[in-house]
Design brief:
Number of strands: 0
Radius of gyration: 16 Å
Strand content: under 5%
Number of helices: 3
Shape: elongated
Distance between the termini: 19 Å
Oligomer: single chain
Structural class: mainly alpha
């Protein structure tokens, strides 16, 4: 990821920690024979949280690429960033 600040990283880490907790709930539900509905709902929540974290990471990189195109700390072209974005779409 491009040079980041604590303000950039904190929301991503919060989303990833939330996804980690939700994944733990999915695993526990499967292990305990939880209902299909509950497992799928929790799994959807995990998936959504991971997608949002990915979009946040890519958004931060795109902003950095646009506002500071000479920064070589994480050299990616706009096309590469767009391709990353589309992998989550």
């Amino acid at each position: 990821m491009a040079t980041t600040t604590t303000a950039d990283i904190k929301p991503v880490l919060n989303r990833l920690r939330r996804a980690q907790g939700q994944l733990g709930a999915v695993i526990a539900a499967v292990e305990s024979g939880g209902s299909c509905r509950d497992v799928v709902i929790q799994l959807a929540a995990v998936s959504s949280a991971l997608d949002k974290a990915g979009f946040q990471i890519i958004s931060t990189a795109m902003q950095k690429c646009i506002t500071d195109p000479d920064d070589t700390s994480d050299p990616m072209t706009m096309e590469e960033l767009q391709k990353l974005f589309m992998t989550l779409a």
